[in-house]
Amino acid sequence: MKKLSVAALLLIAACSSAPQKRSGGYYKDDGPGDRPPPNLASIPDAQPRSEPLHKYANRPYEVFGKKYVPLGAVQPFTQRGVASWYGRRFHGQKTASGETYDMYAMSAAHPTLPIPSYARVTHVASRRSVVVRINDRGPFHSGRIIDLSFAAAHRLGIDKAGSAEVIVESIVPSGVRRAQLGL
Q1: Taking a C-beta distance cutoff of 8 angstroms, is the pair 144, 124 a contact?
Q2: Label partner for 63 (CA 20 to 30 A): which of 9, 41, 104, 111?
Q3: DSSP per residue over 15-64, as a string?
Q4: pLDDT in tens, 101-115
């Protein structure tokens, strides 16, 4: 009986330390934060503008054995797939661009779009869309094409589900010549 009790306690302890999802679609060590801004639904889209591309964040790289080659110029690009979002677990950490990640800004991580660049992300089911500034790399989960800030996910209505099908379209600012990476 004593051996059975010890085994049961070990099993319960092992289960409780494993990451568990909440109803919001994020892990217990992540989420929307304790005090989101009161104007979360009205945070404006990122404003596309011509910016010099980051010298280091646009070099080829490898994560989990997979190689990625970022685009060397801001150019037309369209992709359809699953978006997810990242929250307080990364809030305040450095992005691939060296900027500090702000989960309440209209930003996103993409594995190959130039840093920085801008994209329109449209939630396929609701047809809602937002404009985000790409300033980070990721997601590195198979089947996901973009990681949105919590603010962008909230505006699209995918924050509670955790992920949804989207269309990502790069934005080439009008009246500006294409920004190219000078490596």
Answers
A1: no
A2: 104
A3: HHHS--B-TTSSBTT-SS-SS--TTGGGPPPP-----PPPTTTTS-EEET
A4: 999 999 999 999 999
Rounded CA separation 107/147 (Å):
9
Residue burial 31-65, b: 16+ Cβ < 10 Å; e: rest: bbeeebeeeeeebeebebeebebbeebbeeeeeee
Q: Which of 170, 79, 72, 155 is nearest to 117 (CA)?
A: 170
Helices (H), the chain: 2-17, 150-156
**pTM, full prediction:** 0.79
Residues whose CB falls within 8 Å of the CB of residue 148, separated by 6 or more in sequence, listed in order: 83, 84, 85, 86, 107, 108, 121, 132, 156, 158
Rounded Cα–Cα distance for residues 145 and 79 (Å): 8
> Mean pLDDT, to the nearest integer, of 74-79?
96
Please state, in angstroms and rounded to a whole number, the distance separating the CA atoms of residues 177 and 165: 31
Q: What digits encode the pLDDT tens for the residues 149-159?
A: 999 999 999 99
How far apart are alpha carbons 141 and 16 in whole angstroms?
A: 24
Return the pLDDT at 60.
Answer: 97
